[in-house]
Amino acid sequence: MNILIPHKWLLEHLDTKATEAEIQKYVSLCGPSVERIYQIEGESVYDMEITTNRVDSMSVRGIAREAAVILEQFDVRAKLIPSKIIRNVKIDVSPSQMLPLPKINNDPKLSKRLICVVLSGVKRNETPDWMAKRLKQTGQNVHDAVIDITNYITHELGHPCHAFDYDKLMKTGGEINVVEAKKGEYFSTLDGETFTTVGGEVVFKNGLDQIIDLPSIKGTANTSIDDSTKNVLLLLESIMAEKVRFASMTHAIRTIAAQLMEKNVDPNLAEDVLLRGIELYKELTDAKVASKIYDQFPGKKAPNTVEVTLTRINEYLGIDITMEKVVSILKQLECRVKVENLKTADSNKKTAGANKAAGANKVAGAKNANDLITVYPPTFRPDIEIPADVIEEVARIYGYHNFPSVLMDTPIPTHRQKGVDFTIENRIKRHLSSIGLQEIYSYSMVSEEIALKTDSLENHLKLNNPLTDDRVYMRLSLIPSLEEILDQNPQTPELSVFEIANVYPVVKDSLPNEKLHFSIVSTLPYREVRGIIESLMLKLFVENFNIDIALGSENENIGVITATNSTEKIPVVLGAIKVQDNGRTVAEMEFAKLLSVVKTHPKYQPIPKTAYMVEDMTFTLEPKTLVGDLMTTILKLSPMVTDVKLKNQYNENFSFTITYHDDAKNISAEDVEPIRKQVAQVLNSIYKAKLVGEV
Amino acid sequence: MKANMITIAELKQKIAEIKSQLEADLIQNLAKEELRIKFLAKKGLFNELAKIISQVKPSDKKETGQLLNEVKTEITESIEKSTKSSSDSKNKWVDLTAPGIKPKTGHMHPVSQAMEEITQIFERIGFSRSRYPEVDWDWYVFESLNMPKNHPARDEWETFFIDAPTDKKMGKVVLTTHTSNGQVREMERLESKPPIRMINIARCYRRQQDATHTQMFHQFEGLVIDKGINIQNLKGTLDYFAEQFYGPGTKSRIRPFHFQFTEPSLEVDFSCHICHGTGFLDDKTETPEDQRQKCKFCKSGWHEVGGAGMVHPNVLKAGGFNPDIYTGFAFGWGVERTYTLKEGLNIDDIRLLYSGDLRFLEQF
């Protein structure tokens, strides 16, 4: 998530002469990214991206702390200004004017900490200009001081807090019970929206079992500040992160407080925020401290302990960084560090480096007493848990820009994945696109209408949460998508497109049988589209490519595409081709089947030493004569017939070019004549084909 | 004279037309056989012309016959000589300024072009390409990548869920939000044995749509695992890619970031080719920065292209590798994003890539 940090506010916590540009450049290299610097209200404001693991940086002070460490690495003097928060808070009222704290029943399983104080006699003063300016700079609304102080200190220090109307709270029994909501309870947030609980949300309840707060997320109307508020209960709680996330996500209440608290804000921070709040309430609203500070902190934890060896650090980094440097970096980051013997560690490391150079295969991460570093991160860094986390801290502060850039010298893998062939995919794409086809990438998800063109809806995978109505079902065919593309491009009436992409047939209780399909859709006449596919098959050295009329289909315009498997030499059905009623020719093949028939190279046929004889014969054919079958018949009549081509067609007259050849001798007209007669006779008897002219 | 009668003058005109047609064909160097068919065959141009004889005045018939004979001889001789004359045609005038006649060509989709180039670059340094499911188990997409259920880090992946039963072990069925589902799958394919140097390029899906996001997009994922793989190797790989893909002089930069499945995690930037990594369009380095002309194409001199990092020990474990012995790095970036940063390409709306608009696609 992003945070806006005004430069001048930052300088209240960071003592440096660094320019805005320097801060942007250096902090981005080693810490949170300063994406932009805006000019808001006449001042520079950094727009920074904070990663989800670094909620400690989601505040002005958090950034100052990071910047102080980072800038120093670049020899830019910078220091975190020590906190000026007044620690010993005195009660400002006489004992008789003191207000009782509500009765608090915390559940340590739900809230790690609960800290609060009663402030009496708040005046509804206007938010002072300096604070209003900063709230505006950070994109927050300005109300009046009583409300704005809570937002201000949250932004400054990073722990959300809430100001209750003390009197409203006390009127309904003065109890705060930290409990999980049951299903079907109601609460209204301070902006008036009403919600029903699903059960399991952590809530504050009063003695009447009413929900009086959605802690760490948003206040409820029945206890919130309003125009009549005179006394305030300033309270910070630390609800378990996953509980905050659950309630916030369930009800889609994504407040800044929720977004922070779901990421494990350090509960130790709560006290500083409370004290800073007291300061500001006194200063800006004339509030008086009217109770002791209540603080219950059952979730107080000893800091993490992480052990890592210097060897391991250097293995990850690939450079030889000294123990001294590692320790110095970690200490700057406020980690406590324990090392057995600094100097021994560094001299040992040198030996390790020499071993590495000699090619010794040391076991990574081996613990060596002299090499071991024990790290105790500060409480605000719960993200440092494992050795790799420590390594990251060392690496980023050392500076990734200081690392050399070296390619791997490890072995190159040789076990390629089976069932894929990206070379063939590219060869197909290159061939088709160079002979005039356009490659398309269309969406894998289609509308209900498009899905129904291929199969019933039950046979499609369906998205639970589609973004738009036209992308709901995972497609089973690429053809409807490609036809859509043709429809969308009326300016190009003669168009052939293709796509290689997955389809997703449903498999019960399993992932779909995802498989690659290859489809062509074209407005060209059938013979031209078939010619395109034939030319592709030639390029892929496919044997016995053929298209047969689909048996058992009522539609005579559907053909089955077959070829011979390149290893087992058995026929394989690759897919189908169809001439649609709209005149378009569409073809779809299973890519895996296609892969089974392609070859990387042809089988060379010796160049014939004898001459060919080429002749044309023209036949008048009956309607619906299957020319493909007829040509096969000619080809099979004699071994001397080596090729038959359809030369041209005029009405019912078809001219064929027949090539005769004999490997053994140069054939003569006398050799060809009987075959020619046989052709005429056989075609006449099988197909009732009449030869035009004489034999 | 009848209306449809043809005069000698008209006949001569027609003869001249045929001759110039023949001349044009000879210049184009048409094959002899083709010329014969066109001019001298039964239905050739000469025979068509010869039919005219029935339309001339009886008194002109003789002259017509002579003219036709002459032209036939002339055509026959010209065609017979054509091979010779074409090889001998040094002096024949060709209009070199005339426009070319292009064969019909199509276009490989820009995403395919980018993927091919990316694959080739990584193959040169020992990577091999794999392919993994686009519809996958939550386990491979999130859980095995150190992202437990309900983890806030999952918010960044706007996930599409499939309407299918949840598997006890593998979880829900989702559309892959990134190619990182290939990480543990690749480790499993190689039976948790090094070396791994994978490049996985695939369709990914996220619930978002605007000028820089489409519901469907492509990512390429690199994964390297072995003994002694370190951050320098990651940097070396990134630098190699940047120079190869964007051209010499392109710099890469890595900055700290956070992903659940890498530790350390990094964001990868490439230097902007417009401002050469400076963030400014002018070279007035003396001028205060707020008065200089800022580059609008990039964020302060750099383009974020995606994430990278050292493979998290938990991910290595999920793939059966002992994290005390092996280390690795991974990176995953959008193909579209990476491609559109190419110098001068100028695509400002990536939705165009999947629009199927030929006016766009034909430019590639």
Give your account of this protein's structure.
The complex is a heterodimer of chains A (695) and B (364). With 695 residues, chain A is α+β, with helices and mostly antiparallel strands. In chain A, 31% of the residues lie in helices and 25% in strands. Chain A has 5 domains: 2-80, Phenylalanyl-tRNA Synthetase, Chain B, domain 1 (2-Layer Sandwich); 95-296, Phenylalanyl-tRNA Synthetase, Chain B, domain 3; 306-402, Phenylalanyl-tRNA Synthetase, Chain B, domain 1; 422-597, Bira Bifunctional Protein, Domain 2 (BirA Bifunctional Protein, domain 2); 613-691, 2-Layer Sandwich (Alpha-Beta Plaits). Chain A is built from 20 helices and 34 strands. In chain A, the strands form 9 sheets. Chain A has a 7-stranded mixed sheet with strand order 21-25-26-30-29-28-27. Chain A is elongated, with a radius of gyration of 40 Å. Residues 351-367 of chain A have low confidence and may be disordered. By secondary structure, chain B is an alpha+beta fold. Chain B has 2 domains: 8-91, no CATH class; 110-361, Bira Bifunctional Protein, Domain 2 (BirA Bifunctional Protein, domain 2). The longest helix of chain B is centred in the first third of the chain and has 27 residues, at 61-87.
Can you tag this structure with a few keywords?
heterodimer; A: 695 residues; alpha+beta; Phenylalanyl-tRNA Synthetase, Chain B, domain 1; Phenylalanyl-tRNA Synthetase, Chain B, domain 3; 5 domains; 5-stranded mixed beta sheet; 20 helices; elongated; B: 364 residues; BirA Bifunctional Protein, domain 2; 7-stranded mixed beta sheet; two-stranded antiparallel sheet; 11 helices; 9 strands
